[in-house]
Write a structure and sequence with these properties.
With 460 residues, the chain is of the alpha/beta class. The protein folds into four domains: 145 residues, Alpha-D-Glucose-1,6-Bisphosphate, Chain A, domain 3 (3-Layer(aba) Sandwich), CATH 3.40.120.10; 103 residues, Alpha-D-Glucose-1,6-Bisphosphate, Chain A, domain 3 (3-Layer(aba) Sandwich); 74 residues, 3-Layer(aba) Sandwich (Alpha-D-Glucose-1,6-Bisphosphate, Chain A, domain 3); 84 residues, TATA-Binding Protein. Helices cover 36% and strands 22% of the residues. The chain is built from 14 helices and 23 strands. The strands form four sheets. Strands 1, 2, 3, 4, 5, 6 and 7 form a seven-stranded mixed beta sheet that branches. Strands 18, 19, 20, 21, 22 and 23 form a six-stranded antiparallel beta sheet that branches. Strands 9-8-10-11-12 form a five-stranded mixed beta sheet, with helices on both faces. It is globular.
Length: 460
Amino acid sequence: MAIKISADYKRAFKQVDIRGEYPSEINEEVTYLVAHSFVAEYQLKKVLVARDMRLSSPALFDAFCKGATDAGANVIDLGLVHTPVLYYASGKMKLAGVMITASHSPKNQNGLKMVLPGAIPLTEEFGLKQIRKRMEKGDFAEPKKRGTVTAKDVKEAYADFVLKTAKTKGMEDLEIVADAGNGMGAVLMPLLDKRLPCTFTTINGTLDGRFPSRGSDPTLKKNQKPVVAALKTGGYDFGISFDGDGDRIAFFDEEGNYVNSAVIGAIISKYLLQKRKGAKIVYTNLTSRILEETIIAAGGVPVPAKVGHAYIKETMRKEDVLFGCEHSGHFYFKEYFYTDSITLTLRYVLEAFALFRTQGGKFSEFVAPYLKYYQAEDVIVDVDNKKKAQAAVEAYLKAKKPVRSRKFDGLYVDFGDVWGSVKISVTEHALKMMFEGTTKKVALALQKEVVDFVKSVAHN
């Protein structure tokens, strides 16, 4: 018999995860039902549960554990960890799991990132829709035996796994400032301190779900002030910054300039392709053109993928891709169960920079060859009807007669000196757009024009 659920949970069920306002869209009741349905749908005997430091995470953790154990599964509590640790545990232990987090979203939100054994993410097309239908029916059979909850700390094993083969020569005197943003990156930093010879100075390293120091998304300029201010004092070789659940990493040169994620992706691609010519590397419509150009120049094969961690991972598995880069600061590795790891990302940047630095070069000089284009900060515009607004902006852009266009994961258009993409957001009720050009002027001009148009049709 169908049950009545108090929260507006349908808004929380997104394309690649469950995420929404707490407690109006996701709350303890919804989380309990999701957990019970997850276990029942996949007949799980064991399930990994991890969480971030958001104020609502303890309550949702308790609710998820109760739902899972009431359905008969034993819970392995991974504790407070950053999201890649869940992926490691799922991949290594071959167990399904969940990360309780709203990732980079604001403090008043929370959510569930669920994976099957091997760190395979659930999406609307693969799992989430079935779980939602099962919980709506409310037909929960009593298990023969209720499950238990057991704590397991895998942080040290995780760090060994990603850093055991690191080439640390030349890192000895590197000074790096890391802005944890009061998020789960703070738990990672002691693990790095123990295993890498460089010196890390952590700022905003106290876990606090209120995000008192800055917003959670480190790729946004307004959230970069703490790390930039630290770099301006001098004495650091470069800086890094994390999002709330520690699956995004942003880089800054020694002067505090933000380094586009595609530049970091290009550096890693070139580094990895030195020994793996012909390997495939993923890019998206929203990553800077420099990434695709670098992949080809370094002897790799660029593979397009839809934006969103679940879609990139799916493409990487299907195409046997070595590495993937997303404009939002996510970096994906075949060697890491085709998932994202900020630690592997930092490791490879450190290894490549250590080699470059033997000749006395600075981080700004290290990234300089990749700064060919200007990419505007991505913009998200809230709309009432995503499909209707997307259709309107696509017609608008096509009428401007681009040199070429591509209908893949939204619409990509190229006008010669400026190009970009507009697509439906997979996590928000909005359109996301990114524009890039040979100059800052042309990129910002087209961006403003398109943003103004989308705003004009947003509520029609």
